[in-house]
């Protein structure tokens, strides 16, 4: 009789011992820094409005109610953590499971572990320095490089993302054989949304593969149109205070000097949902409690989310996320 | 023909690209945390045999290619076409030189070949992994030699040239691995 091996964990004992070590190193670091570890719910009646993020959901039965309610699994703990900051909590961090629908691949598992932290009164640059400190602690990497989004496009593709025309963006895409990604019917102008989509493709395929080979790199000042929850750069309204870390072809962390203007946040939610409607995607309920908290006031702060599983892949030189998880999606 | 979305892309699926049928080899999911998801697909063009990478937006679809493999036995050539027969239905099909490519030199009558049909027309002919062919020309070798030294070239009935051990002689039938074009052994008598 042959017994199938499918019951086995996808990650080796060595990988999972390293995972425990990294988690304890990170907790020790934050303890020394007096950053408070918190836990927030992984479920919520509302979710993010991001056009490119889909939340999984679950059906909840309340014994005191006849109505069943849909709850979303968190794509990140951001809104709950910011509600705590608005309520007067000091700098906080948490290590938590996040869930994203429609994401399975070499670097993606539908359920993954996120390290997310918020630092009161930190600027974007101060938080970049702290992310680098943690990478040096865990991966023993040299001090990170730093470049702006615009500089990298200029250096690797000869494209000025701020001032060059849509025609130039499209012609670079065509040069690389991406004519099938260019929106059909393109004449000479793209919507901001489509221009960003093409820039994301070029960044992913032609820049990310070339940066952060020897040492991690912090890519800063993403265009305001890709600000997500970052503040707009006060010195240039075309830019945002959003950054990302890349190392050896892996997108490792995404952070912001946090937007703390409730009206602006509300506008971005509405814009997202307009875009969702245009794309035939489901409209997402806005997180009203989060907006109410912002109304009361989010202190000046910066926050970042770092993928623990990818960090572990880098620490161990693993090629697939399944190798650093106890049981990956395929092993369920 | 049906259309296939990127989430149906897996190894072995046949799709149309630039007017040519292609076989998908790999499909890698690529997604920036805050951006559009893409599928980075590695595929082989079935007519030109070129391997290339193509990126699609996640959720986009492409036309499938009506490609199927059939097992047919080789009958004969009239110089312009190579004729094959389905041994169960006795249907015959003719492939041209372009579909045969390098396989011409491995064709043995009555051997079963894999014929790849696109819209019913043969585009690729794959010979069996091993074929047995007679040597028509080779230098006499030294006695006592065993396989493992450099060997010598031998011309086979089909015109193929294969390196054989020195002890193998003209007129003998040898077994050749068609995937590598290498000598495997003498044929069993």
Automatic annotation (TrEMBL), chain B:
Q: Name one GO cellular component term.
A: cytosol
Name positions with the PTM N6-(3,6-diaminohexanoyl)-5-hydroxylysine.
Answer: 34
| Extent of the signal sequence | none
Q: How is it modified after translation?
A: May be beta-lysylated on the epsilon-amino group of Lys-34 by the combined action of EpmA and EpmB, and then hydroxylated on the C5 position of the same residue by EpmC (if this protein is present). Lysylation is critical for the stimulatory effect of EF-P on peptide-bond formation. The lysylation moiety may extend toward the peptidyltransferase center and stabilize the terminal 3-CCA end of the tRNA. Hydroxylation of the C5 position on Lys-34 may allow additional potential stabilizing hydrogen-bond interactions with the P-tRNA.
Q: What sequence ranges are listed for the domain Elongation factor P C-terminal?
A: 131-186
Which SUPFAM superfamilies does the entry mention? Nucleic acid-binding proteins (SSF50249), Translation proteins SH3-like domain (SSF50104)
Question: What keywords is this UniProt entry annotated with?
Answer: Cytoplasm, Elongation factor, Hydroxylation, Protein biosynthesis
Q: Which Gene3D superfamilies match?
A: 2.30.30.30, Nucleic acid-binding proteins
Pathway annotation = Protein biosynthesis; polypeptide chain elongation
Which SMART domains does the entry link to?
A: EFP, Elong-fact-P_C
Query: Entry's InterPro entries?
Result: Elong-fact-P_C (IPR015365), NA-bd_OB-fold (IPR012340), Rib_uL2_dom2 (IPR014722), Transl_elong_fac_P/YeiP (IPR020599), Transl_elong_KOW-like (IPR013185), Transl_elong_P/YeiP_cen (IPR001059), Transl_elong_P/YeiP_CS (IPR013852), Transl_elongation_fac_P (IPR011768)
What would you give as a GO molecular function for this chain, any one? Answer: translation elongation factor activity
Domain Translation elongation factor P/YeiP central stretches: 69-123
Keyword DNA-binding assigned to the entry: answer is: no
Q: State the family named in the UniProt similarity comment for this chain.
A: Belongs to the elongation factor P family.
State the protein's purpose. Answer: Involved in peptide bond synthesis. Alleviates ribosome stalling that occurs when 3 or more consecutive Pro residues or the sequence PPG is present in a protein, possibly by augmenting the peptidyl transferase activity of the ribosome. Modification of Lys-34 is required for alleviation.
This protein is called: Elongation factor P
- What is the scientific name of the source organism? Brumicola pallidula DSM 14239 = ACAM 615
């Amino acid at each position: 009789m042959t017994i199938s091996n499918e019951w086995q964990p996808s990650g080796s004992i060595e990988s999972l011992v390293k995972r425990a070590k990294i988690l304890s190193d990170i907790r020790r670091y934050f303890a020394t820094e007096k950053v408070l570890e918190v836990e927030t719910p992984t479920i919520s009646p509302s979710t993010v409005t991001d056009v490119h993020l889909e939340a999984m959901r679950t059906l909840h039965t309340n014994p005191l109610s006849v109505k069943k309610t849909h709850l979303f699994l968190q794509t990140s703990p951001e809104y709950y953590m910011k509600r705590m900051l608005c309520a007067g909590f000091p700098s906080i961090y948490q290590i938590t499971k996040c869930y994203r629908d429609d994401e399975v691949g070499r670097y993606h598992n539908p359920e993954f572990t996120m390290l997310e932290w918020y630092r009161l009164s930190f600027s974007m640059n101060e938080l970049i320095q702290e992310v680098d400190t943690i990478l040096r602690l865990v991966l023993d990497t040299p001090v990170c490089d730093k470049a702006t989004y615009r500089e990298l496009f200029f250096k690797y593709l000869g494209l000025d993302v701020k001032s060059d025309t849509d025609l130039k963006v499209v012609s670079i895409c065509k040069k690389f054989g991406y004519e099938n990604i260019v929106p059909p019917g393109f004449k000479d102008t793209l919507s901001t949304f489509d221009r960003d989509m093409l820039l994301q493709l070029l960044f992913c395929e032609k820049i990310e593969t070339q940066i952060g080979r020897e040492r991690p790199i912090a890519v800063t000042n993403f265009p305001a149109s890709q600000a997500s929850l970052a503040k707009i750069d006060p010195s240039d309204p075309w830019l945002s205070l959003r950054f990302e870390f890349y190392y050896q072809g892996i997108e490792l962390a995404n952070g912001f000097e946090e937007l703390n203007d409730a009206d602006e946040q509300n506008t971005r939610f509405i814009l997202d949902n307009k875009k969702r409607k245009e794309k035939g995607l489901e409209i997402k309920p806005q997180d009203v409690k989060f907006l109410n908290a912002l109304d009361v006031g989010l202190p000046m702060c910066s926050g970042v989310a770092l993928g623990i599983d990818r960090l572990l892949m880098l620490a161990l030189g693993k090629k697939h996320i399944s190798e650093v998880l106890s049981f990956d999606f395929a092993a369920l | 023909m049906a259309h296939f979305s990127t989430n149906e892309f897996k190894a072995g699926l046949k799709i149309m690209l630039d007017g040519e049928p292609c076989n998908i080899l790999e499909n890698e999911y690529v997604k920036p945390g805050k951006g559009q998801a893409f599928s980075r697909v590695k595929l082989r063009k079935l007519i030109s045999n070129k391997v290339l990478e193509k990126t699609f937006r996640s959720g986009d679809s492409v036309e499938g290619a009506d490609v199927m493999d059939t097992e047919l036995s080789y009958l004969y050539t009239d110089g312009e076409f190579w004729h094959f027969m389905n041994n169960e239905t006795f249907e015959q099909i003719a492939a041209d030189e372009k579909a045969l490519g390098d396989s011409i030199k491995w064709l043995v009558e009555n051997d079963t070949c894999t014929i790849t049909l696109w819209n019913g027309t043969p585009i690729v002919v794959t010979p069996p992994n091993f074929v047995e062919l007679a040597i028509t020309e080779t230098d006499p070798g030294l006695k006592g030699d065993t396989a493992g030294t450099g060997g010598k070239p031998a011309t086979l009935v089909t015109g193929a040239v294969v390196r054989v051990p020195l002890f193998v002689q003209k007129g003998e039938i040898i077994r050749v691995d068609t995937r590598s074009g290498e000598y495997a052994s003498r044929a069993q008598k």
